[in-house]
Amino acid sequence: MIVGGTGHNGGVSTTSLPAPHHAARLRDALLAAAFTADGLLDLLGAPAYAALARSETVPALRATRGQGPLDTLVRLFLLQRPVGYESARAALPLDEALADGWVVRAGDEVRATVDVRPYGGPEGQDWFIVSDLGCAVGGAGGASGRDEAMVLGVGGASTTLAGITVRLPAGSALDLGTGSGIQALHAAQHATRVTATDLNPRALDFTRLTLALSGAPEAELRTGSLYAPVGEETFDLIVSNPPFVISPGARLTYRDGGMGGDDLCRTLVQQAGERLNPGGYAQFLANWQHVEGEEWQDRLRSWVPRGCDAWIIQREVQDITQYAELWLRDAGDHHSDPARYAERYEAWLDEFEARRTTAVGFGWITLRRTDSDRPSIVAEEWPHPVEQPLGDAVRGHFERQDYLRRHDDAALLADRFRLADEVVQEQVGLPGAEDPEHVVLRQNRGMRRATKVDTVGAGFAGVCDGELPAGRILDAIAQLIDEDPVLLRDRTPEAIRLLVEQGFLEPVGK
What we know:
Elements: H1 23-32, H2 37-44, H3 46-53, H4 58-63, H5 69-78, E1 83-84, H6 85-91, H7 94-100, E2 103-106, E3 109-112, E4 115-120, E5 126-131, H8 156-164, E6 170-176, H9 182-187, E7 191-198, H10 201-213, E8 220-223, E9 235-240, H11 263-270, E10 276-291, H12 296-301, E11 308-319, H13 320-330, H14 338-354, E12 357-369, E13 377-381, H15 391-406, H16 409-414, E14 416-419, E15 423-428, E16 438-443, E17 450-453, H17 455-463, E18 465-469, H18 470-481, H19 485-491, H20 493-501, E19 505-507
Parallel strand pairs: 6-7, 6-9, 7-8, 9-10, 11-13
Antiparallel strand pairs: 1-3, 2-3, 4-5, 10-12, 11-12, 14-18, 14-19, 15-16, 16-17
């Protein structure tokens, strides 16, 4: 849970960044004042809280007219308005905050030098994300007038990646392109050693502040592009929310990869395999081109490194005009001179035309190093709602691929299964009809999939409670529908595999 919004002071601060020397004391003061995600909701109320997420600050300004410490902290760090010196002293260990550079004094007023946002961790932790002033993701003014080296706060893409990441105990984790440090902060909860890299040295300074102010262990911070900072080191987990925007040139470091087309995302994925330990996961957000005469699934499958299983999910597709307009607005170009805007728009379309790009896809790419000679590579389109966090669902997908790879049809029929939790059956047909036109199994958790099944599939799934082998259940169904049990055993394993692969059935391993 994170509070969004945009600050009053546009642009990257020209002051040096704070030092984390007294971060623990500052953290204690923030917590004592209830400067947390829950505390803000209580103070602001749901409408003003939601408005902040839309980058609208007026309701929050009205809600913080009081003189309490929380009002002061919200105005100072979240809304980035000057506060009175005495009010700041009542809310903060002000001498240390001034000495370390979190705030600056101008006469009887105090101003923040950085954006500090409360962020609720997955187990109720109270964390804080530190970024440049006025650089909350989704700010209504876009990035116009900001330095290309600015470091953004946390937006929807970052929280999506955090939610889909597999959270297993890990000896080592790599956050590649760390930004303000949100992925490193999550990884520090379950990895013994966290390495965070970024091409922008300023981002590493912000990651240090985010970790310190959140009370998390320090990370190894390294400057450089792609995998260069880690050489040949290997990791149990690699995560990256890279600058994946497919654009003409590399105008904005925080979003534009600087390589042609989708080459940056391709390189990240292709080079991940050799830097994963056996059984390790690499998880990325990415954009990819839809190229004339080429299936996007084939394009993405070609990225998968040898020895890795892959699960590629396309969540959204935009045509090239929608895509160009989205990122022109992000840069604030829609507020610029119309001729200049048109010139930049033309440059985007020229780039896409030269690459025969018809659309751009956005989604998630997860790799797992298995070293199997029969890798599983699943590329699918799934624009439907899902239930975050999905880390366990992602891990389950790869575990099921392992299971199916080890079990031929005979072994499948000899095994026992149970219906997964919160799967319901829906019968679809005309009102009053004696029999349904078809039966749908639907998940209410995770990916929230739905799949059509025939009468045999519905009956099989309905009686799977882990007690009887699949073959015995099919024999009983064959008797009920007066079908040859041998033929039913021959034609059903493919349907069982699909139900297992999609998570409707779980092997019980008896």
